[in-house]
Design brief:
single chain; elongated; alpha/beta; 7 helices; Rossmann fold; six-stranded parallel beta sheet; Arc Repressor Mutant, subunit A
Length: 225
């Protein structure tokens, strides 16, 4: 369960005082487990195997962990704070920067991980000693949070594309109005007609108009006479 007010929204912290009983996984998924401690890796793998998830890779060092995550593309990654070569936080930061997978971060000191959470793909923190209810629930929450995050990024990208398209159409209308001496409404209709005739978007037509204008004028507005 989240610690009230301490962790950012969308991130979850689980300690040994969590829910009891096995948690049902919503759907089958794959997992990579990374820890320097072989006993901890074995324990976490055993817990994961009690669910319908599949462990597709184990690593004790940061290099192997990142290689596995990139090549095997797991649905969720469970990373211990203690890895060979570098810390688990550094690996989580790379995973987050490259949007590879949601990370469940296993740590003895969750409070020290807060600053890194903001710049990583850590979607859940699990305190040691790790138990089944908390680890399973953390994986569920991490996957769900990551999916919502991806959807949000797609929506933002679509919004940016829409705004860029409107901006291009506005500029193209201005060019047509200036060069052809037509009204704004007529300029819009011409762009729209070209879009329909060519079976392409108005953004593509607008970009073509702007590009042709810039080639002719060097990007400078025409002088009014």
């Amino acid at each position: 369960m989240p610690v009230g007010g301490r962790f950012p929204p969308g991130f979850f912290f689980f300690s040994g005082a969590g829910r009891t009983g096995r948690q049902e996984a919503v759907y089958s998924s794959t997992v990579v487990v990374a820890s320097r401690d072989p006993a901890l890796r074995k324990a976490m793998k055993s817990i994961i195997q009690t669910t319908d998830r599949t462990v597709v890779g184990e690593a004790e060092d940061s290099v192997s962990a990142l290689k596995m995550i990139r090549t095997r593309q797991p649905d969720v990654v469970v990373i211990d704070e203690d890895l060979k070569n570098s810390s688990g936080l550094e690996v989580a930061a790379v995973v987050g920067q490259d949007r590879l997978a949601p990370v469940v971060y296993v740590t003895s000191y969750p409070g020290r991980s807060l600053s890194a959470v903001k710049e990583s793909s850590i979607f859940a923190l699990v305190a040691k000693p790790v138990d089944e209810p908390n680890l399973v629930l953390a994986m569920e929450m991490a996957e769900a949070g990551f999916h919502k995050f991806q959807e949000m990024e797609k929506e933002i990208a679509q919004l940016k594309e829409t705004l860029a398209g409107r901006k291009a159409v506005e500029r193209a209308k201005g060019i047509l109005m200036e060069t052809l001496g037509i009204s704004e409404g007529e300029a819009f209709k011409r762009i729209q007609k070209q879009s329909m005739d060519r079976r392409t978007s108005m953004r593509v037509v607008a970009d073509a108009i702007v590009m042709a204008h810039d080639l002719q004028t060097g990007g400078r507005p025409r002088k009014k006479t």
